[in-house]
Amino acid sequence: MRGFFKYYIRAGEVWTEVRHNSGQIYYWNEQTGETTALGEPKPRPEGRRVMRPLPVGAAAPSLLGLVGVGAGIGLVFGIIGKIF
């Protein structure tokens, strides 16, 4: 797995309608060269949600943090259980 994904909203882009050989329509962004999937609706003026992968290192600290919190909680409950 390459990491988790984050959505970015990009507004103000110009999309041109293009007809594929199959007859389906897709949209092409002249500014970025990006295209939508066949049959995907035209991106709205307020922007398109684009899913981009985060680097692997960006996901690791949060996962390690959760493991650390879990271990800490387990340790605290273990100590409290021995006291009472």
TrEMBL record:
Transmembrane segments: 54-80
Domain of life: Eukaryota
Entry keyword set: Membrane, Transmembrane, Transmembrane helix
Record flagged with keyword Transmembrane: yes
Protein name: Uncharacterized protein
Organism encoding this protein: [Myrmecia] bisecta
